[in-house]
Amino acid sequence: MFKRNPRSYLRIIAEFFYPRGGWYRASQYVIHRIRRLPDPAHRISRGIAAGIFASFTPFFGLHFLTAAILSWIIRGNVLASLLATFVGNPLTFPLIAELSVNLGNAILGQSTNVHLPEIAAQFAAATSDFWMNMKAPFTDHVVDWSRLSAFFHRVFLPYLVGSIIPGIVAGAIGYAVSNPVIHAYQRRRIKKLKERYEKRLKAARDKAGEAREKP
Q1: Which of 25, 71, 76, 138 has the fewest Cβ atoms surrounding its Cβ within 10 A?
Q2: At how many degrees (to 10) do helices 63-73 and 41-56 cross?
Q3: Which residues cross the membrane (predicted)?
Q4: Nearest C-alpha neighbor of 156 from the set 105, 112, 106
């Protein structure tokens, strides 16, 4: 009856950078879903911490998997970890990437400063080279891993090393903030459900009493 028109690639890309309804609405949806998860507050908060930490890693395209594995290891809520990867988005990735790469360079004793345009260009080139090398056995392209090796040492390794500290700090903050908030929300929700149940039970008893009093 009603056929949904498939989204164009341009629309998908546009909504990745600016979701339908805006970032505020998207963030409120994520918060709402997290609060209503059927799990103890501490497990949900562990999942949130895992998801936030995963968002700081350079494993683009694998943040969901990384978050799920970390959440499983620390016995957190896996769905909460997936939702918490929302922390990594087009608005925050530039800051996370440049901070992590340059912090990683400092930890590794490298004085090089790498800025966002080069980081983005290096990731794009590495992705292209990887797929070209994967297709090389079926084409005339010669396998060459030299640029990927340069990408690994200049961007990926510093990014990986540098993401650990801010990722842990951000994850710990996420846990510390979310745990009491979710716990309070769950207590309020249980109280409301209990009051609603008692109200319905009282109404049913009153109705039954009225029925017995009738001749």
Answers
A1: 138
A2: 140
A3: 48-74, 156-182
A4: 105
